[in-house]
């Protein structure tokens, strides 16, 4: 498991963000905590990339067209420092390591919302996900709308299609609690 630390000013910033941006950030933390930041490359929607100039050594992931999470990785598998969530015009100085606190959950994300965000990040339709997971497209729709329970077999099929651990889909709230306790 990876540790995620957030800059102390991030909580204030998160209060002003749209809920969809916060939900995608929670998913971002779940994925990074369990799989590390390299998993972000598997999701084209994050458009994860290295930064240059005064931000050299840092990376960013797209949360939507306007907002990005700016982060830095230390010690190749130990800590991810979330510096800020910012509009696409990237501003600010490099921050000191003592200005970071353990990551905390900012908003609740349902299983259905997690599936929808993962699918969107991959650029897949429900039909494409149905083909890749072996789950009927109608059931995918019902799962995304939280009309049916996920179940272990469906979670495993979806996780396999996305290339992630099933717990990210089955227990989005657990991951948020684990991130908070583990950091």
Walkthrough of the structure:
- It is a single chain.
- This protein is an alpha+beta fold and 183 residues long.
- It has eight helices and six strands, in the order E-H-H-E-E-E-E-E-H-H-H-H-H-H.
- The protein has a six-stranded mixed beta sheet with strand order 2-3-4-5-1-6.
- Helix 2 (19-35) crosses helix 8 and helix 4 crosses helix 5.
- The longest helix has 17 residues, at 19-35.
- The termini are close together.
Offer a few descriptive terms.
single chain, 183 residues, alpha+beta, YaeB-like fold, 434 Repressor (Amino-terminal Domain), 2 domains, six-stranded mixed β-sheet, 42% helix, elongated
- With strands numbered from the N-terminus, the spatial order across the biggest sheet is 2-3-4-5-1-6
- CATH class of the largest domain, anyone? Alpha Beta
Determine Rg (CA atoms, Å).
16 Å
**CATH fold call of the largest domain:** YaeB-like fold
Structural class by SSE content? alpha+beta
Instruction: Specify the biggest β-sheet.
Output: 6 strands, mixed
Determine the number of helices (DSSP H or I, runs of at least 4 residues): 8
**Named CATH architecture of the largest domain:** 2-Layer Sandwich
**Unreliable runs:** 88-94
N- to C-terminal separation?
10 Å
The CATH superfamily label of the largest domain reads RelE-like
Shape: elongated
């Amino acid at each position: 498991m990876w540790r995620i630390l957030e800059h102390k000013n991030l909580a204030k910033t998160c209060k002003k963000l749209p809920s969809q941006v916060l939900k995608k950030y929670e998913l971002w933390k779940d994925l990074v905590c369990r799989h590390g930041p390299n998993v972000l490359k598997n999701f084209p929607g994050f458009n994860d990339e290295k930064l240059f100039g005064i931000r050299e050594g840092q990376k960013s992931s797209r949360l939507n067209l306007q907002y990005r999470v700016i982060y830095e990785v230390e010690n190749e598998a130990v800590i991810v420092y979330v510096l800020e969530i910012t509009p696409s015009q990237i501003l600010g100085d490099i921050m000191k390591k003592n200005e970071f606190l353990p990551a905390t959950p900012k908003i609740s994300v349902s299983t259905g919302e997690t599936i929808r965000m993962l699918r969107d990040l991959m650029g897949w339709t429900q039909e494409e996900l149905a083909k890749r997971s072996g789950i009927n497209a109608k059931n995918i729709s019902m799962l995304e709308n939280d009309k049916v329970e996920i179940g272990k077999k469906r979670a495993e099929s979806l996780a396999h299609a996305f290339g992630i651990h099933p717990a990210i889909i089955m227990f989005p709230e657990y991951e948020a609690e684990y991130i908070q306790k583990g950091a």
